[in-house]
Amino acid sequence: MVTTLAWRAEEPSFHELCYEWLERTPWLALSAAAHLLAFFVLSAIPWEAFEREVPVVVHATLSPAPVELEEPPEPTPPEPVVSSDASDEPELVSSEAEDPLSESLADETSSEFLDFSPSFDTSSFDPRLSEIGLGPGTAGKLGGRIGGRARLSKGSGAAPALERALAWLAAHQSPDGSWDGDGFSARCGTLGASTCDGAGGATHDVGLTALALLCFLGDGQTNASGEQRAVVARALDWLCAAQDPDTGLVGERTGRDYLYDHALATLALCEAYGLTRSPRWKRPAQRAVNLVFQARNPYGAWRYDLPPVGECDTSVTGWMVFALAAARDAGLEGDFRSAFEGALAYLDEVSDPATGRVGYSAFGELSSRTPANEHFPREASEAMTAVGLLCRLFLGRTPEQDPLLAKHAALVAAKPPRWDPEGYGSDLYSWYYGTYALFQMGRPWWPAWEKALGAAVVDSQRRDGDALGSWDPICAWGYTGGRVYSTALMTLVLQVHYRYGRVLGAR
What we know:
Elements lengths: L1 H9 L3 H31 L84 E2 L8 E2 L17 H14 L33 H14 L10 H13 L16 H19 L2 H17 L18 H16 L6 H15 L32 H12 L9 H10 L14 H14 L4 H13 L19 H17 L1 H4 L8
Antiparallel strand pairs: 1-2
Helix pairs in contact: 3-14, 4-5, 4-6, 4-14, 6-7, 6-8, 7-8, 8-9, 8-10, 10-11, 10-12, 11-12, 12-14
């Protein structure tokens, strides 16, 4: 009995074995199913496809007879494709003249400087459009073709004039990175044995530095790349150092119109960040943008006051709009939709639907002129109309949607650029906005305006002494901006073909 019990303790019973086997049955079934599935999978693989083919090696000795080779036939050029809109395209003329920089400046003639046309077809422009939610229109990205100077026609006057202008600006930058409106002549002597005249005021160095910096950014130069990257880096550092870290204001509250300077500085900082995506410029740019929003009148536009007091004017508003457009395109933060809607509402208030004139600060009012510029009468310029036209275009309006655009363009085009030191034609501020606006509008307004630019801008560029590459400040605001101001504006004008994509496409 004891022996039997001891065995039963060591040997499981039949019932216990059956129970243990039944407990293991699901796992055995799963294992069997897995093995069966693997078998079917392996059976379905076409193993014969993986068998390596044994290459057949043929040993032969070839002794070809000499054969006379024939020249391949010339390829037949494809038939030119003629667009149905060919009659509306601007005629592009590419001069075969040698680059004027390689010749003596004394040999340059006016005819060499009349061709502003690029050597590539402007119909290939990528507009780089971006919706802003204000209707069917689109807004052109700032910097749509930045850095395209090399693509300008070699024989035109624009390319060498640009090279001279950028060289003058670089040579007259202060060591601290700024451009000094009244003290830039301290840097004279690099380009020639003379001293430049044309000093401006002492209160707008922030705005002048921003304008000059925009010329280099438009040429594709950044703080990290390009021949003039050191110039760009110094200018950006100076603007950032001039910014109040608490308010975001670039510069000081000097004079009544310091917000002009801030708007230009904001535009330059936003373009620099947009081109480089460097966090080094992002925070200063965002701070400057935040202040632009704070300076806007609720549901309206901008003028001189911070905080705003309800007054607006078209001139300040134009620069603010372009600063915000650059900020939007760079991916910075802000209520851009509301700001753009307010700007368009203000422009509607000051625009005369009968004549197309955009007022300075009231309905149909002429452009502003100060007593220091009595020889530049207000009726000599349609600067505000040009500002309004360009703003409408970049805020999404089209000629089909907004009939005012064609009226604006007709008024601006009626007063083309004309270099006239003794008369009333040299309004460089109006030329800047007019050039960019009519380039966007295209035909029928742009061709005649472009032709006038050749004589008015390129032919008037200084080519002597240390003033080589600059423009005399004989314009409505030359007394306060000086030679740096006039040179920066005209450099930007020469960049019109590639600085922005065409909002409306090639016309």
